[in-house]
Amino acid sequence: MVTTQATGPDAQSRHLTINGTAVNLSVDGDTPLLSVLRERMDLKGSRIGCTEGYCGACTVLVDGKPVQSCNTPVWSVAGKTVTTIEGADRHPVLAGVQKMFVELQAAQCGYCTNGIMMTLAGLLAQSPRPDRAHILAHLDERHLCRCGVHVRVLKAIDRLLAQPEGASA
Amino acid sequence: MSECPANLKANPVLSRWLRLDDQPRVGIRSGKVELGQGATTALAMIAATELGLELDQIDIMAADTAHGPDEGYTAGSFSIEHGGAAMRWAAAQLRELAAQAAAHVLGTTPDQLVVEAGQFRRQGHNEGVSYWQLRDRINLDVSALDLPAPVLHGGTIDDGHLQRPDLVGKLSGAGFIQDMMFPDLLHGRVLRPDHPQDRLLACDEAAVKGIEGVVAVVRDGHFAGVVAQTDETALAALAVLRKSAQWQRQTELPPDDGLNGWMDRATPLSTCFLDEPQPETATHTHQARYSRPFIAHASIGPACAVAHWHDGQLQVWSHSQGIYPLRRQLARTFGLDAESVNVTHAHGAGCYGHNGADDVALDAALLARAVKAPVMCLWTRADELSWSPFGAAMRMELSAGLDESGQIVAWNHAVWSPTHLARPGFGDGVNLLAAGDLAQPHPRPPLADAPRPQGGGDRNAVPLYDVGARKITHHLLPQGPLRSSAMRALGAHGNVFAIESFMDELAMLAGRDPIAFRLAHLSEPRARGVIGAVAKAAQWDAQDQGGEGHGRGLGFARYKNLGAYCAVVAEVEVSETVRLVKVTAAVDAGEVIHRDGLMNQIEGGIIQAASWTLKEAAGWTQDGFKTRSWADYPILNFSEIPAIEIVLLAPEGAASLGGGECAAGPVAAAIGNAIAHALGVRVRDMPLTPERITQAIHA
After folding, report:
1. What is the pLDDT of residues B535-558, one digit of tens each?
2. Would you call B543 helix, strand, or coil by DSSP?
3. A115 plus A78 within the same structural domain
4. Interface list for A 101-120 with B (CB within 8 A)
5. Does A140 touch chain B (CB under 8 A)?
6. Nearest-CA distance from B172 to chain A in Å?
7. How far apart, in whole angstroms, are the C-alpha atoms of residue B287 and residue B400?
8. Are B586 and B534 in contact (CB under 8 A)?
């Protein structure tokens, strides 16, 4: 169990599991999940992008579902399980997505990429697995890429969808 | 190549470029930096090839002003052409120094030796000696200019499946400047207004000082910022400062009509740099006017820097494209010697040009001066989208004369634009945002643009076509309503859009197929080569009349008229929206070092240029910036991405040409021409939105 210090007079204790580790966090009011991951847990793979839920660079999985951690208060995920890119070794679908992205070099600067991979892992791990159109609609809604690696991301999606369900690599 | 490359000449000591690390590794330190474009991987491949090593034996060290070479800016698609040439030469000289030492040890001559995986061996012999065994015998503190010109092996070790070493880390955790950790790191935020012409008069510093976790409030003239134990606290303190801030408006902004109407009232600095005598054989004339708005860099990662003062020395970590120019500008701002400032490069999110990276470095240094610990300063999303310099708005007016046979005999191109180059270090002054806000302000340099032949607003204003008498005029405007500076391709995006749209208009007047018309005016073989290749790949049908919402169009340019050749065919379907169906490109960038890296750059360049051309415009209102959030600045999304096909041409023996920016202009023009082909009407003002298309149809 990891316990982090209180930050203010209004701090409340919240329990959650991050990448398989039980964590006891003392947080103020609406402290966003992203701040806790980056500043207190040193999990930097979830990026600071827009802090208002548009770009998706901060996306993590909460109980398996893609969530933008920049505008998700910690209190709303108390008792839940959080997976970040650093938890890929515990999440076979995420590990498979990550491997595919590296293989296809589906990144340029790589700043938006981890968020996109988290969303894909969350969607692909769902049962039944959603189709391409559903995945694209989800990406349109929640992710931005400025370098223009979309073509490679789409290729990665097609390859991942062609793999048997549950395949991790 | 027989002459020492310019970047090595300017930094001739080999130890600035190369270091023999512990076996089996060699460190390289380039002045060209990783911007997400894969430059450092390509440079490592060049070094590995010349040294006879595998790529994974190369350690890529961070660019740094204390230890590494000064290669100016990582910009203009010059990293391989210039930085790569220097690295190749330096690595080959290290190999030859080692070969001499190895020959001495093995009792032979260097020409009898081969190098494999870092081992020098005589041909047919097993015993050898490695770089690392020779370490004490190799002196890298020598000048490249005092050594003979080395034999360059050239070529690459690219098997097409190469993976960028930096991406492996980034795609599994930390890797960016925003992720840097120091035990005593503090967090800073700065207060900037919502209006480009507002200046801070006062704010309630006392209220902020009382917030638990706030370490310092910094005020210097019109500059204000906070330093706190955590970024959350810094943000909370910033919100309090902002609430109490009183601003003074220096001037009001002209109205934004979306068509650069403000340019009518600006006084340009005009240069007619090409003015050939006009012939009298023209029987037809045609003219047209084109425009593009200001465009945001819109990096996904907000600008960030870390600064630390100790013993009067300033250490800065920055994702700047030019660590040496930044060092000199910071030194000038603080009245220090350049040697008292060190800038170390750290990776940032894709920047695509001069964004806020340099400005935030000064912000961080100003905040860190008030405390005794390193300070990480981060910009807000709103400031990233409005205080980063914008790609400059442009207006292009073209006219041409055709003779009786339909050949172009006269060509006139005039471009109006504020500067495309206000990077720190260009001109006498300080081009860092906060420098003008300080109690003792540093003035900006006088108005200037990137010099020809590369050019800024006039980049690619001279057509590559044989068009008879040419008159080309650059009207450099003073700073417009928004601050502008270098953005990927600079003026090439607007100028090529105009030239290539105009070529299609002229082809139509002459009753010719656009490709046949271009080839009738184009003698350069490599230019003809890419146009021919793209026509073939896209199965161009000269008889295709288009219409009914379906169209295809071509765009061509040689980037800067000096870099890579690129021809693009775009296919569109236009109904209520413009659907970009497919983009086919043919690129000749000479010798290719890292094939997948170049492909990735071209793909990304196509998508980014399509986004600019179809969707993007940074505007303003009387209240200030209009782009404060991604909601205000839509970019192309996943379901709008076209199919992309790229053909790479690499004529034998052709040197590497910068390729990272070559697609921007041709893509814009190809889309514009495809829309015109689909509808029979042309939109000459970017972005080519459904609203503008509807207006053109009803005009």
Report:
1. 999 999 999 999 999 999 999 999
2. coil
3. no
4. 101-103, 105, 107-114, 117
5. yes
6. 6
7. 6
8. yes
Q: Determine, for residues B604 and A136 on separate chains, whether the beta-carbon distance falls below 8 Å.
A: no
Do residues A92 and A25 share a domain? no
Report residue B81's pLDDT band, with 50, 70 and 90 as the boundaries.
confident
Q: Cβ contact (<8 Å) for A85 and B641? A: no
At A151, which CATH number?
1.10.150.120
Q: Is B473 helix (H, G, I), strand (E, B) or coil?
A: strand
CA B336 to chain CA centroid, nearest Å: 29
CATH code at B177-250+298-387: 3.30.365.10
State how far the Cα of B608 lies from the Cα of B570, in Å rounded to an integer.
Answer: 14
Interchain CB contacts (distance < 8 Å): A and B = 164
Instruction: Give contacts of B168 with chain A, Cβ < 8 Å.
Output: 102
B619: region left, alpha or beta (phi > 0 left; psi from -120 to 50 alpha): beta
pLDDT tens, position by position, B183-240: 999 999 999 999 999 999 999 999 999 999 999 999 999 999 999 999 999 999 999 9
Residue A169 has pLDDT above 50, yes or no: no
> For residue A39, what is the domain's CATH number?
3.10.20
User: Which chain A residues have a beta carbon less than 8 Å from that of B164?
Assistant: 105
User: What value of ipTM does the predicted structure carry?
Assistant: 0.96
Phi, psi at B139, each rounded to 5°: -105, 110
In this structure, are A96 and A156 located in the same domain?
A: yes
Residue B644 phi/psi, 5-degree rounding, is -130, 135
pLDDT, residue B124, reads 84
Q: Which domain holds residue A11?
A: 2-50+73-84
pTM comes to 0.96
